[in-house]
From TrEMBL:
This is Carbon-monoxide dehydrogenase (Acceptor). PROSITE patterns: 2FE2S_FER_2. PANTHER family: OXIDOREDUCTASE WITH IRON-SULFUR SUBUNIT. Keywords: 2Fe-2S, Iron, Iron-sulfur, Metal-binding, Oxidoreductase. It comes from Carbonactinospora thermoautotrophica. GO terms for molecular function: 2 iron, 2 sulfur cluster binding; metal ion binding; oxidoreductase activity. Residues 2-78 form the 2Fe-2S ferredoxin-type domain. Gene3D superfamilies: 3.10.20.30, [2Fe-2S]-binding domain (1.10.150.120). The keyword Iron applies.
Protein backbone atom coordinates (compact mmCIF):
# COMPACT_ATOMS: atom_id res chain seq x y z
CA UNK A 1 0.00 0.00 0.00
CA UNK A 2 1.11 3.51 -0.75
CA UNK A 3 -0.36 6.86 0.21
CA UNK A 4 -1.09 9.15 -2.74
CA UNK A 5 -2.88 12.44 -3.32
CA UNK A 6 -4.92 13.18 -6.43
CA UNK A 7 -6.66 16.51 -6.93
CA UNK A 8 -10.21 15.81 -8.09
CA UNK A 9 -12.36 18.72 -9.22
CA UNK A 10 -10.01 21.07 -7.40
CA UNK A 11 -10.04 19.19 -4.10
CA UNK A 12 -7.03 17.18 -2.88
CA UNK A 13 -7.96 13.59 -2.00
CA UNK A 14 -5.39 11.52 -0.09
CA UNK A 15 -5.68 7.77 0.45
CA UNK A 16 -3.71 4.55 0.57
CA UNK A 17 -3.91 2.51 -2.61
CA UNK A 18 -2.32 -0.70 -3.77
CA UNK A 19 -0.63 -1.24 -7.10
CA UNK A 20 -3.85 -2.58 -8.66
CA UNK A 21 -6.19 0.25 -7.64
CA UNK A 22 -7.68 1.79 -10.76
CA UNK A 23 -8.17 5.53 -11.17
CA UNK A 24 -11.87 4.72 -11.68
CA UNK A 25 -11.98 3.03 -8.26
CA UNK A 26 -10.18 5.95 -6.63
CA UNK A 27 -12.64 8.43 -8.14
CA UNK A 28 -15.77 6.45 -7.23
CA UNK A 29 -14.93 4.50 -4.08
CA UNK A 30 -12.39 6.77 -2.38
CA UNK A 31 -13.43 10.25 -3.49
CA UNK A 32 -17.15 9.42 -3.85
CA UNK A 33 -17.64 11.00 -7.29
CA UNK A 34 -19.99 8.38 -8.68
CA UNK A 35 -20.84 10.30 -11.86
CA UNK A 36 -17.90 8.49 -13.44
CA UNK A 37 -19.43 5.15 -14.43
CA UNK A 38 -18.10 1.63 -14.65
CA UNK A 39 -19.52 0.06 -17.79
CA UNK A 40 -16.99 -2.58 -18.79
CA UNK A 41 -13.63 -2.23 -17.01
CA UNK A 42 -12.04 -3.12 -20.36
CA UNK A 43 -11.55 0.31 -21.99
CA UNK A 44 -14.37 -0.44 -24.43
CA UNK A 45 -17.43 1.63 -23.44
CA UNK A 46 -16.11 5.10 -22.53
CA UNK A 47 -18.46 5.50 -19.54
CA UNK A 48 -15.49 6.14 -17.24
CA UNK A 49 -13.86 8.97 -19.24
CA UNK A 50 -12.33 11.80 -17.20
CA UNK A 51 -9.69 14.46 -17.79
CA UNK A 52 -6.22 14.11 -16.26
CA UNK A 53 -4.33 17.40 -16.49
CA UNK A 54 -6.63 18.35 -19.36
CA UNK A 55 -6.25 15.16 -21.39
CA UNK A 56 -9.06 12.65 -21.71
CA UNK A 57 -8.46 9.12 -20.36
CA UNK A 58 -10.56 6.06 -19.71
CA UNK A 59 -10.16 5.82 -15.96
CA UNK A 60 -10.64 2.04 -15.91
CA UNK A 61 -7.49 1.79 -17.98
CA UNK A 62 -5.23 3.85 -15.71
CA UNK A 63 -3.81 2.99 -12.29
CA UNK A 64 -4.36 5.45 -9.47
CA UNK A 65 -0.60 5.36 -8.79
CA UNK A 66 0.03 6.68 -12.31
CA UNK A 67 -2.04 9.77 -11.52
CA UNK A 68 -0.54 10.57 -8.10
CA UNK A 69 0.03 14.30 -7.75
CA UNK A 70 -2.02 15.16 -10.83
CA UNK A 71 -5.38 16.87 -11.38
CA UNK A 72 -8.51 15.06 -12.47
CA UNK A 73 -11.77 16.58 -13.68
CA UNK A 74 -14.91 14.44 -13.58
CA UNK A 75 -18.42 15.23 -14.74
CA UNK A 76 -19.11 16.73 -11.32
CA UNK A 77 -16.43 19.33 -12.02
CA UNK A 78 -18.43 20.83 -14.90
CA UNK A 79 -21.40 22.21 -12.95
CA UNK A 80 -22.27 23.25 -9.40
CA UNK A 81 -25.44 21.15 -9.37
CA UNK A 82 -23.64 18.26 -7.70
CA UNK A 83 -22.97 19.47 -4.17
CA UNK A 84 -21.01 16.80 -2.34
CA UNK A 85 -19.38 13.44 -3.00
CA UNK A 86 -21.43 10.37 -2.06
CA UNK A 87 -20.14 8.43 0.95
CA UNK A 88 -22.73 5.67 1.01
CA UNK A 89 -25.09 5.27 -1.89
CA UNK A 90 -28.77 4.80 -1.19
CA UNK A 91 -31.75 6.32 -2.92
CA UNK A 92 -32.05 8.68 0.02
CA UNK A 93 -28.40 9.73 -0.01
CA UNK A 94 -28.53 10.41 -3.75
CA UNK A 95 -31.58 12.61 -3.24
CA UNK A 96 -29.56 14.56 -0.70
CA UNK A 97 -26.52 15.29 -2.84
CA UNK A 98 -28.24 16.70 -5.91
CA UNK A 99 -29.77 20.13 -5.76
CA UNK A 100 -32.78 20.24 -8.14
CA UNK A 101 -32.09 22.72 -10.94
CA UNK A 102 -35.29 24.55 -10.06
CA UNK A 103 -33.94 25.20 -6.57
CA UNK A 104 -30.77 26.90 -7.78
CA UNK A 105 -30.55 30.65 -8.09
CA UNK A 106 -30.16 32.16 -11.56
CA UNK A 107 -26.43 32.70 -11.06
CA UNK A 108 -25.91 29.07 -10.13
CA UNK A 109 -27.58 27.60 -13.22
CA UNK A 110 -24.26 27.24 -14.89
CA UNK A 111 -24.52 23.91 -16.63
CA UNK A 112 -21.67 23.41 -19.06
CA UNK A 113 -22.89 24.18 -22.62
CA UNK A 114 -22.67 20.49 -23.47
CA UNK A 115 -24.74 19.51 -20.43
CA UNK A 116 -27.31 22.16 -21.29
CA UNK A 117 -27.46 21.01 -24.92
CA UNK A 118 -27.90 17.36 -23.85
CA UNK A 119 -30.80 18.52 -21.69
CA UNK A 120 -32.43 20.57 -24.46
CA UNK A 121 -31.93 18.01 -27.23
CA UNK A 122 -32.93 14.92 -25.21
CA UNK A 123 -29.50 13.38 -25.82
CA UNK A 124 -29.88 10.73 -23.14
CA UNK A 125 -32.29 8.05 -22.07
CA UNK A 126 -30.93 5.91 -19.21
CA UNK A 127 -27.98 8.31 -18.84
CA UNK A 128 -25.40 5.63 -18.09
CA UNK A 129 -23.13 6.62 -20.98
CA UNK A 130 -23.74 10.34 -20.54
CA UNK A 131 -20.91 11.42 -18.19
CA UNK A 132 -18.31 9.78 -20.43
CA UNK A 133 -19.91 11.19 -23.58
CA UNK A 134 -19.91 14.70 -22.16
CA UNK A 135 -16.32 14.53 -20.90
CA UNK A 136 -15.08 13.25 -24.27
CA UNK A 137 -17.06 15.89 -26.15
CA UNK A 138 -15.78 18.64 -23.83
CA UNK A 139 -12.20 17.63 -24.50
CA UNK A 140 -12.85 17.36 -28.25
CA UNK A 141 -14.83 20.58 -28.74
CA UNK A 142 -12.32 22.66 -26.79
CA UNK A 143 -9.69 21.65 -29.36
CA UNK A 144 -12.02 21.47 -32.38
CA UNK A 145 -14.55 24.30 -32.14
CA UNK A 146 -16.03 23.92 -35.65
CA UNK A 147 -16.69 20.22 -36.16
CA UNK A 148 -18.86 18.57 -38.78
CA UNK A 149 -21.36 15.92 -37.74
CA UNK A 150 -18.95 13.31 -39.11
CA UNK A 151 -16.18 14.76 -36.91
CA UNK A 152 -18.38 14.46 -33.82
CA UNK A 153 -19.31 10.90 -34.75
CA UNK A 154 -15.61 10.09 -34.99
CA UNK A 155 -14.84 11.85 -31.68
CA UNK A 156 -17.30 9.66 -29.78
CA UNK A 157 -16.41 6.41 -31.53
CA UNK A 158 -14.97 5.12 -28.23
CA UNK A 159 -18.21 5.80 -26.34
CA UNK A 160 -21.02 3.27 -26.53
CA UNK A 161 -24.67 4.21 -26.01
CA UNK A 162 -27.26 1.44 -25.86
CA UNK A 163 -30.28 3.74 -25.86
CA UNK A 164 -30.26 6.80 -28.04
CA UNK A 165 -29.09 5.80 -31.51
CA UNK A 166 -26.58 8.67 -31.23
CA UNK A 167 -28.50 11.18 -33.40
CA UNK A 168 -29.61 13.39 -30.52
CA UNK A 169 -26.13 13.21 -29.00
CA UNK A 170 -24.66 14.54 -32.25
CA UNK A 171 -27.41 17.20 -32.44
CA UNK A 172 -26.50 18.28 -28.89
CA UNK A 173 -22.78 18.33 -29.64
CA UNK A 174 -23.31 20.56 -32.70
CA UNK A 175 -25.49 22.93 -30.68
CA UNK A 176 -22.98 22.97 -27.81
CA UNK A 177 -20.11 23.69 -30.21
CA UNK A 178 -21.97 26.79 -31.40
CA UNK A 179 -22.56 27.96 -27.83
CA UNK A 180 -18.91 27.31 -26.90
CA UNK A 181 -17.75 29.35 -29.92
CA UNK A 182 -20.02 32.18 -28.81
CA UNK A 183 -18.72 32.05 -25.24
CA UNK A 184 -15.11 32.01 -26.48
CA UNK A 185 -15.76 35.04 -28.73
CA UNK A 186 -17.35 36.92 -25.83
CA UNK A 187 -14.40 36.06 -23.56
CA UNK A 188 -11.98 37.32 -26.25
CA UNK A 189 -13.96 40.54 -26.66
CA UNK A 190 -13.93 41.08 -22.90
CA UNK A 191 -10.18 40.46 -22.76
CA UNK A 192 -9.58 42.90 -25.66
CA UNK A 193 -11.73 45.51 -23.92
CA UNK A 194 -9.73 44.99 -20.74
CA UNK A 195 -6.46 45.44 -22.63
CA UNK A 196 -7.63 48.71 -24.10
S1 LIG B 1 -15.57 1.27 -17.82
FE1 LIG B 1 -13.86 2.22 -18.72
S2 LIG B 1 -14.20 2.08 -20.85
FE2 LIG B 1 -15.86 0.98 -19.98
S1 LIG C 1 -28.43 6.93 -22.71
FE1 LIG C 1 -28.51 4.84 -22.07
S2 LIG C 1 -26.55 4.08 -22.65
FE2 LIG C 1 -26.61 6.07 -23.51
Amino acid sequence: MQEITITINGKAVTAEVDERTLLLEFIRDVAGYTGTHNGCLEARCGCCAVEVDGDIVKSCNVLALQVAGRSVTTIEGLSPQRLTPVEHITTQSLAGVYEPLDALGADEKTLHPIQAAFHRRHALQCGFCTPGMIMVLKDYLEDNPEPTRADVRQAICGNLCRCTGYQHIIDAAMEAAEEMRLQAAMADATADGGDG
